[in-house]
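User: For my dataset I need records formatted as: sequence, then structure tokens, nothing else. Please produce one.
Assistant:
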Amino acid sequence: MPICDALGQPIAAADESARIASLVPSLTETLFALGLGPYIVARTGFCIHPRDAVRAVPKVGGTKDVHLDALRALRPTHVLVNIDENTRDTVDALRTFVPHLLVTHPQTPQDNLSLFEQLGAAFGRLPGVAERLTALGSKLQTVLGELQTLPLAPRRVLYLIWRNPWMTVARDTYISQSLAAVHWHTLPDVLGGDGLHQPGRTRYPALDWSADWLAAVDQVLLSSEPYRFGPRHVDEVSRLLAACGLHPEVRCIPGEWTSWYGARAIDGLRQLAAFAQRTTV
């Protein structure tokens, strides 16, 4: 049975004529980790890793506002997208001129192993890719095993990704499941659906600062992306909570530790675990 993408479409194997575009930062970095840099012809402006290598790759807008004409002119044979990060309209438009569209949707750290299988089905015939995928999969399995042995205390966290409106994450997002891997459970305790048919707001709900469940939060995490939270926002969030009589710890956290999948997940999960060990009380 052929390996399929997140929409159930069979994945065709690329050959040496491949021209790859990645519209997902995590996947762009992973493609370079697989040695596919010579085949990459387009990326988004948010695809910033590896920094030196991506500078040579043309940008075609952002993840949500892809410049389709610019991408079409680069004649990609394969384009990588993600259900959470790219829009359905973009995907539908790409189908009109891209021979091979690879739709990804990892929702847990464990799903990276399936992602590696998808990438192997698409690019495993190119030199060195299969071997590098095997190595990445082995490293990830080691990290996942290590996490199960760490003495990490459970915490209830509010993870903020946006401001005006303030937005957080549902329990069935990749971010929330990454945090769960270190025994940090996101609040509110809601599910957002698989993202295939539900609107994005159900997976990344707006926050009501008067909500009763905020009293159960042990720690607030301010992500560095997609909104670039910084130290001044720590003070702002602390004041908003204090106005409700609440005083949980508020900290900034690199978004790459929780939301970047693929090759980055290996180091990201280790960094997240170390952060959890330092901040657990």
